[in-house]
Amino acid sequence: MRHYYSTIQGIVTTFSDIYASPEKGESIIVHMERPSEQGFDVVEFLLPSFTCQKCIGFSEDERISLEKFIRNNSALIWEIAKEDGEIIADVG
Fold it and tell me: Are 64 and 50 in contact (CB under 8 A)?
């Protein structure tokens, strides 16, 4: 399930429930998108490693700026995910 986090400068940020596996521990996927002429520009980060899993349509400077935003907000995202979400077994 996706949980809404924010909309800033037309970029909508959502995040997944917490995924858990014995091998990888707990993780959250943060998804950011904005409308574009081709549909949507998309970037996804995996928490807690801040690994960029997907980046389509955003420049490298924008990706770096969005990663900084996620780093600055990750503690709150984790807190909300633990309060409002579920922990899902990671099958991957």
Answer: no
